[in-house]
Amino acid sequence: MRWVLISLTISILLSFVSFAQVQYPLYYLKPGFHISYVANYPTIPRIDGCDDVLAGLDLNKNGKLEILAINDPTVSSPSSNDTTKWIFWFENDGNDNYKLLWSVGLPLTSITTGYSFPGVNITDVDGDGNYEITVVNPSNADPASGVTNPDKIFFYEYDPQTKTFPTEPTFSWNLDYPADGEAGFRLTYLYADDFDNDGKQEIALIDRTSNIHMWIISLDGNDLNPFSTFKIEFQDSSLTATWAFDIAVTDFDRDGKKEVWFGTWTNFTWVIVEAEGPDTYVKKKVVTNSHIGSGTLVGTLRSLKFMDMDGDGYPEGFAMATNGKLVFIENKKPTDVSEIDSTYFYKVGGWDYTRGADWGDLDGDGNLDVIVAGNYRNVYHIEYKGSGPFADSTSWEWDEFLSDTLGTPRYYYVSIPKGDMDGDGKREVVIGSLQRPDSTRGFFIVFESDVAVKVQAQNDEILMGYHLSQNYPNPFNPTTWIEFSIPRDEFISLKIYTVDGRLVKTLIEGRYYSAGKHKITWDGTDENGNKVASGVYIYKISAGKFEASRKMLLLR
Predict the structure, then answer these.
(1) Predicted pLDDT at 180
(2) Distance between CA atoms of 528 and 518, rounded to whole angstroms?
(3) What local confidence, expressed as pLDDT, does residue 47 receive?
(4) Which H helix or E strand runs over 214?
(5) Please, are residues 85 and 70 in contact by the beta-carbon 8 Å criterion?
(6) What whole-number distance in Å separates Cα of residue 330 and Cα of residue 93?
(7) How far apart are the first and last CA of the chain?
(8) Per-residue confidence (pLDDT) for residue 515, from 0 to 100
(9) Which segments in the chain show pLDDT lower than 50?
């Protein structure tokens, strides 16, 4: 018995110290990864948890990648009676280190107790190149304090002179829509893009009251300031459902018109709204998918991504449902998105209960990886094997990413940066913990691969003196660099293809280059300057008798 106890003690100690960069107790972490950074108290001057996290940003454009996180004590520490939601902006500060640049508490303009799950994203609504950190804050009217219609969306615009964000909102707005004093108003997510191709950025919004409200708004004018006005380009509240936490954008039917997909948590239901022209939108379809999961808690948490994985020019959809199932949305090449129905949606496999997820290529093999937060102590990993039907669970590898040891750290949100956060060549995953059992546990944790992700050159390339490097960053959005080396002066061609061999763009065509290293950028557009869909692409070089190609992954 004594030897059993000694062995158990050694096992527990190993689970604590095996992650060399940071000592942090976990029961299990996937081999090949370690913890490189933990944000907790006192760096985060809060003892409650992380409501959302975005990693791989460069908001101040200095080349140092950043992490944005938001705190919501109304869900992570409800017993504290604290209702102020906070935003934290971190920047990389060397290998495996990050520093807090800025933080701010959202203004308490109304009753917010019980109004949980704010949403945050990056916008540039005035197109001046200075990003805004934009937050939607669930709230309610407070007639006793004279607040009948509180602001619901807050913009903090970066100031290039002070090189930081303001402590007061640059602009805030109540959407000209009243909170009813009972159900209140619970905006949960926002997504920014030029949906209608009019040259201006719009913002799509969704809330989680009983009648799901959906908006598309845009700045009226060219300067964001405290006196700005916005116009409502689209508004709909005809769908009765429960919670809603997801918005995605694509051109599923490839008709040149973008669709905004709004996701709800009732029977995995999606509302598809298409831009028909400047400031003009039509609700094309409501698709209910009870076969994915029935009930009022089956949806997605900011995880739907569209990408052209099979290279046919049409984007496929991938999402993690909150009932733990990987969902594949087949593109049957409809002539119009109104033809989409539940037969497009496949339940592939998974677990019993999950929350947020993100997508990337963690090991540089060109195959899609998914990291999935399990809501409580577990986080999972899925990887496409590189071949086989996407709707077949045997085409994917399924395993555990981590299992925690202590209390109830609700791992809820995941962000996979599109680039290497600290420049050491190792890919990272950032995971936020919605609730923490104590202040020693991570507000968010940066996990990093043990080795740099590099695609090794073939021996004949090295011997001949030719080399086509892996693009960087990879995955990327919207721009990536492609580097190649040639041992002698040559005429070079460099082209981008889909995985089925269709030409996307010619970057170099028969141009004369001198011997040495050269680097060229691709901005994710085709020959006509149109943005291509997310997915796997092939870049191929020809130099004399030498030819080589590599895979790269675009994730918008």
Answers:
(1) 56
(2) 25
(3) 64
(4) strand 211-220
(5) yes
(6) 42
(7) 56
(8) 72
(9) 1-20, 455-464
Task: Measure the CA–CA gap between 294 and 349, rounded to whole angstroms.
Answer: 16
CA quadruple 9, 12, 18, 24: dihedral sign: negative
pLDDT at 219 (0 to 100) = 97
| Element at 9 (helix H, strand E) | helix 2-17
Give the pLDDT confidence score for residue 458 in this predicted structure: 38
Residues ≥6 apart with Cβ < 8 Å to 10: none
Among the listed residues 470, 404, 393, the one whose alpha carbon sits nearest the alpha carbon of residue 442: 404
CA dist., res. 135 & res. 409, Å (int): 24
Q: What is the mean pLDDT of the chain?
A: 85
Q: What is the pLDDT of residue 5?
A: 35
Tokens 């972490």 sit on residue:
29
Residue 553 and residue 421: Cα distance in Å, rounded? 17
Distance, CA of 268 to CA of 262 (rounded, Å):
11
DSSP character string of 81-117 = -----EEEEEEE-STT-EEEEEEEEPP--SB-TT---
Phi then psi for residue 279, to 5 deg, are 60, 20
Count of CB atoms situated within 10 Å of the CB of 338: 14
* CA gyration radius, the chain: 24
In sequence order, which residues have a C-beta less than 8 Å from that of residue 7 and are 6 or more positions away?
none
DSSP 330: -
d(CA 448, CA 406): 21
For 379, the 3-state DSSP assignment is strand
What would the pLDDT profile of 517-547 be if each residue is shown by its tens digit? 888 999 999 999 999 998 899 999 988 777 8
Would you tell me how many other CB atoms lie within 10 Å of the CB of residue 199?
8
Does the CA dihedral 157-479-553-400 come out positive or negative?
negative
Residue 179, pLDDT score: 63
The Cα 109–Cα 79 span in angstroms is: 21
- Do the Cβ atoms of 522 and 537 come closer than 8 Å? no
Round to whole Å and give the CA distance between 501 and 482.
Answer: 19
The reported pLDDT for the residue numbered 242 is 78
pLDDT for residue 467: 83
Contacts of 95 (CB under 8 A, 6+ apart): 422, 423, 424
Q: Which two tokens stand for residue 13?
A: 């100690």
